[in-house]
Amino acid sequence: MKRIAVFVFSILLPLHLAAQKFTISGYVQDQATGEKLIGASVFDAEAGLGTTANEYGFFSLTLPEGEVALTVSYVGYTPFQKNMVLDRNLEYQVELVPDLRIEEVTVTTNRPQDVVRSSQMSSVQLSPKQIKAMPSFLGESDVLKALQLMPGVQSGTEGTSGMYVRGGGPDQNLILLDGIPIYNADHLFGFFSVFNPDAISNVTLIKGGFPAHYGGRLSSVIDIRLKEGNMKEFKGSGSVGLISSRLMLEGPLVQDKTSFMFSGRRTYMDILARPVIRIVNNQTGNKGMAGYFFYDANLKINHKFSNKDRLYLSAYSGRDKLMVRNEYEYMFSDTLQTEKTDYGLYWGNLTSVLRWNHKYGNKFFSNLSVLYSNYKFDVYESYETLKNQQPFTRFQFDYFSGIEDVGAILDFDYYPDPRHSIKFGGKYLYHSFKPGVLAYKSTQELDSLDLEFGNEIIDAQEFYVYAEDKMNIGNRLLVNLGLHYSAFIVQDEYYQSLQPRISGRFLITDELSVKAAFTRMQQYIHLLTNATIGLPTDLWLPTTKRIPPEESWQSALGFAYNLNNEWSFTVEGFYKSMMNLIEYREGSSFLEVNTEWEDKVETGDGWAYGVEFFARRDVGRLTGWIGYTLGWSNRQFLTLNDGKVFPYTYDRRHDISVVAMYRFSEQTDISATWVYGTGRAVTLGVARYAPDHWANRENGDYYYGEWDEIEYYDGKNGFREPAYHRLDFSLNRHKTKEWGTQTWSFGAYNIYNRQNPFYLYFGSDYNGKRQLRQVSLFPIIPSVSYSFNF
């Protein structure tokens, strides 16, 4: 019996010793502000194991008992290092100190070694500091304009809104602000986005290899996180530019317990134009006003109950409004006649989310969010007449559309050991779609009419559940396996989709890796777009009994290389097929209120493929990147282009972006961007010919007349506009004051005055000869702005 006991003990003892593991968990944050550092690296040099902080700064690392050489690092901060003997579970609130040395400071979270070692491909991150250092249009720093400089991402032409990622449309981008979907992300007809860079802490773009916790769009995820608010002291920043001003305030409500962040921005073009309009009115005898403005505001409150529980409340409100009012008075038959006209349009978003973080032990983390989102668009016109200041007739036209969401999100993070990082959860959304309703009212003396017609409101429910596991297999292979199940309930129809998500990385050397990804995506909402200037007349519409959900399959293969921990290089090839895309039928538009929207559209397929090259440097005085995309994007619809394949409008064969930022000293830095893109594919006549018979109806003589000619088109989108290219430049001068810092920024947009095409049309020269003409929007545009921090 004694020998048996010794034998059993000899077997169980090694197992017991092998099982002696303990967990180090906690949060990583900025020492000066208390801001959580998303994606911070936590690594033990002794065991060669590590992890990263999640989107709320939480980390959990389970290690064998014994010596630990812990390093916590984040780009732009001095690493935290601690040697210890691990013999129990530990909790750390790691506070990193910003590294202000000019030669070594970095401005993003894209460390070259992380780019090589991460299983995530087709992804980039930008910091607000970098966004604000780049040249900007009219001095307005812009998040989406910065992302458009990445390979695989294209903008529309000047004057059009939207981002086109790997051959997809603008509705195929999941744009999240603190986890809430934003349906219209544009101000000023697409020239600016709704995101105030002063209020942002982190921006992540994912173009492919989507993790399982994202869903609902085909082409990209743009995940924007707001600042949480300074827990330590009151701070602020702001800017005064040519067309707008902005202000951000943050600070503690209760020291190290509760903080707030508020930001606001508004244009003042309407205010500046009022004196000019009054002078014109005085000269013409008219009474009226015209103007345009936009505003946006963000509010976030962060409360820490304990190390285990935190509560966040964040809200966003933004609106654009264009209005033209006119009043004209005259005498007729001894009666004072007054005519009033009022025209305008406005659109905007309202979002809010209440979020609760909870930590269960040292390996389990949860986030519960309850959200609300509302997007509205309205265009109106009224005409009123008065006799001797008494109402006589009134006609009013109002067209409105929108989408309203209420929902909840529940996510869990589980860290069983350093070789597994598990995430699972789900989301529920209740949608209310207003596809377009026309209201008409008229009043004339004793008669009145009140009508409302158009598309009916459609209610729908959308939900998904997911699970994913990021696992290390050996020392060189890292794989993220996920499964995403989604469903959409509308008009008694139940659509569902099971979507595999697979991405992986294999280390060829410590500095070189090969990556691959395969994803399936399903999209249940559509954006019906007019291919014109970026007015918000695009309609968000649901999948219905007649319109199926959009679907895509995307695969990617690439390499990542780290050069001296200064440069990162990536080369990626991708192929994406898309099904059930929608387009307006020829000649249809959103104003056809007597026609159901489902009768205005066609469904078809599309595919895109190409190669992207990206070289980036985020360390030292000179930072920036070079991006190049060689790509193809095509569409096919049964009733368009005779059913033949045609190029997508934003099919760009070559797309190049060069971004450079150089800091001479703490007082002076410069930046420049240069972009080049193949011209848009448009439908344009390439020849004209006479019909078989023509006649002059006045005298019966036959002759050839220009108005009798028939236009010949070389297929849909068969003509290419001239190439688009532009150089922008900016100079920033910083000065330290007793109260903080101030910066004067001087810049120029389109510095060599390239006349890029906005649209093409046929006209005539002085001799009456037909010729193709081009309309361009922007010549060289200088800008100046003043910004401050305190």
Verbal overview:
It is a single chain. The protein is mainly beta. It is built from 5 helices and 49 strands. A hairpin with a 4-residue loop joins strand 14 and strand 15. Mean pLDDT is 85; it is low at 4-18 and 102-109.
Q: What is the mean predicted local confidence, pLDDT? A: 85
Residue runs with pLDDT of under 50 for 5 or more positions: 4-18, 102-109
Radius of gyration: 30 Å
Estimated helix fraction: under 10%
Which key features would you list for this structure?
790 residues, 22-stranded antiparallel barrel, five-stranded mixed β-sheet, 60% strand
Short description:
Helices cover 6% and strands 60% of the residues. The chain has 790 residues and is mainly beta. Residues 4-18 and 102-109 have low confidence and may be disordered.
